[in-house]
Amino acid sequence: MNTRFDMMLPRRQTILGGVALAAGAAVPAHAQLTIDMTKPSFEPVPIAIVDFKGDKVGADIAGVVRNDLQNSGLFRSISPSAFIQQNIDPNAPPRFPDWRGIGAAGVVVGQVTQSGGNIKVDFRLWDVVVGQQATGLSFTSQPDKWRRLAHIIADAIYKRVTGEEGYFDTRVAYVAETGPLGNRVKRIAIMDQDGFNARYITDGKTIALTPRFSPTLQEIVYMAYGENNAPPRVYLQNVESNRRELLGNFPGMSFAPRFSPDGTKVVMSISADGNTDIYEMDLRGRALRRLTSGPAIDTSPCYSNDGTQIVFNSDRGGTQQLYVMGAGGGGERRISFGTGRYATPVWSPRGDFIAFTKIAGDGFGIGVMRSDGSGERMLANGFLVEGPTWAPNGRVLAFFRQQPNSGGRAGSVTLHQIDITGRFERQMPTQTDASDPAWSPLIPQ
Amino acid sequence: MRMIKALAAIVAMIFIAACSNEQQAAAPATTTVTPGSVADFRQNVGDRVFFDTDQSTIREDGRQTLNRQAEWLKKYGNYQITVEGHCDERGTREYNLALGERRANAARQYLVAQGIPAARIKTISYGKERPDPVGSDEAAWARNRRAVTALQ
Predict the structure, then answer these.
(1) One-character DSSP codes across B88-143
(2) Do A408 and B105 touch (CB under 8 A)?
(3) Measured between beta carbons, which residues in chain B are less than 8 angstroms from residue A399?
(4) Cβ–Cβ below 8 Å for B54 and A410
(5) What is the pLDDT of residue B10?
(6) Contacts with A, B 40-59, CB within 8 Å
């Protein structure tokens, strides 16, 4: 499974000649092919995705597109059994009244053609409301990469309708958990965002936790215990060759690693004599720089999207709270002031919010606040929810939920995604119990 | 699994006790452990101390346990020691790794202060990754906020 994605590079071009047609019947006011996501509440866009013509894989591609869009919560995929127009020509305008009749705001049609050992996929999104083509694109790739093509098409539709970048052509790294809690096997796994193509990248002989992607997705950093009671250390691993290397041979524990946005540095925590501070390692020369000091626990560091600041959690004030400092250390200031303990801050890729885990009363929550600490808002709560991670568009988060243990048995641990509005929470499918999700950037095309 | 083993042990003891009653002549059903063995340390000294929520201060009950541990470890100087720090599940993973390290270090420092050479004692934190017992109530969490002295 050492696929090299630079071999496939879906090539993209705009389909020319999309014919604008005059709108036929009166435009129904309730369905539009755009979403104003600045409004606090909006209805999902009803969209009809027709099985792509020309090859058996066309139906599979349409299925992946339907699933992606439906799972975002922003679209309602109309069941193909409701479609009136059958045998639609992918190169001609659809019969708009037929699609208006089933309440669709948009229709997606496409075709698959063989092209010198590759497949070429053309698709068009028709705006049923105004009766014209909204977008049309063409992609070419190796035949076995058809799922990626489908995600890229779903991203294009998402972007055309919402005005924001999509996040479907991405992966999620996580900790796959199996076995009884007292002797749990915890392995790093990577899957496509929709749960497909999962594979393990650590062997499970020792506990491995907290995977995080490099900006290019070529590498992850994570923490793993050594054999024979050796303390946890941070490893850098190539996700294709699976070659891994130890980042720094420190006498104590090193953990909580994250890449800088430019991928040249890794920030992490290192413990010595019971005390935990934050350090930054330059990956080019492996030079180590200490960023915090003092007897407090300073951990869970994360760079800002522009790389100039680091948010982390510390108990220096008595309880675990969020602090922001300059990327080189210094200027530390507390930003969380609500009731409870704050942990695992993660800066949005858009820079506008910091997501966090909050422990208050009897429960845990996932929330967001602005980087100055204002505007705190909780998105999800539960017995134990932890570890938010941002989809690359800064609009959707993933986290994990653990149910209470009972009768000596482990409660389930599952990955979930949620919209930044706190709506559309859904469980992300995994083959095993799963924790510590890390959402990748968009896969380079 | 652990629970099943414990139940099996209890069932076995009841069975032995029943046999003893019937046979009258059998020896009392007490297990004997070899002095200086790991089992001796666990059963007669106590291999773990407990902490309050989000704390790493050694409590009075913990000091008594660690005092017994220090006496025993001085007597049996052939063991190397790893103090394992653990947390309950009511914290985040990364913070709990650091908190477990603090707890392990607190127990280690106490043992060193009682005269155990620092070079004999390593520490490791398992955060909330190795619960014992498995449970999601206050009683289970109290048992999980622990530092365990493991002998090698």
Answers:
(1) -SSS-HHHHHHHHHHHHHHHHHHHHHTT--GGGEEEEEEETSS-SS--SSHHHHHH
(2) no
(3) none
(4) no
(5) 43
(6) 54, 56
Is domain B34-151 given the CATH code 3.40.1440.60 in the classification?
no
Residue B28's contacts (CB-CB under 8 Å, 6 or more residues apart) are B20
Res. A7: pLDDT tops 70:
no
Integer Cα distance of A366 and A31 in angstroms = 33
Residues 6+ apart with CB under 8 A from A204: A178, A185, A186, A187
Between CA A356 and CA A368 the distance in angstroms is: 6
Rounded distance between C-alpha atoms, residue B126 and residue A278, angstroms: 19
ipTM reported for the complex surpasses 0.85: yes
Predicted TM-score of the model (pTM) = 0.89
DSSP code string of B36-68: TSHHHIIIII-SEEE--TT--PPPHHHHHHHHH
- Using an 8 Å Cβ cutoff, are A237 and A214 in contact? no
Task: Tokens 């996929």: give the residue.
Answer: A121
Which residues, in sequence order, are CB contacts of A247 under 8 Å at separation 6+? A221, A233, A234, A235, A236, A254, A257, A266, A268, A281, A286
A18-45 tens-digit pLDDT:
333 333 334 444 568 888 777 767 789 9
- Residue A276's contacts (CB-CB under 8 Å, 6 or more residues apart) are A269, A270, A297, A298, A299, B98, B101, B102
Residue type, A63: G
Closest CA–CA distance from residue A280 to any residue of chain B (Å): 17
**Taking phi first (over 0 means left), then psi (-120 to 50 degrees means alpha), and beta for anything else, what does residue A293 get?**
beta
pLDDT of B48-84, one tens digit each? 999 999 999 999 999 999 999 999 999 999 999 999 9
**Domains detected in chain A:** 5-162 (3.40.50.10070), 171-439 (2.120.10.30)
Give the separation between CA A341 and CA A353, rounded to whole angstroms: 18
Beta strands in A274-319 (DSSP E): 275-282, 288-290, 298-303, 309-314
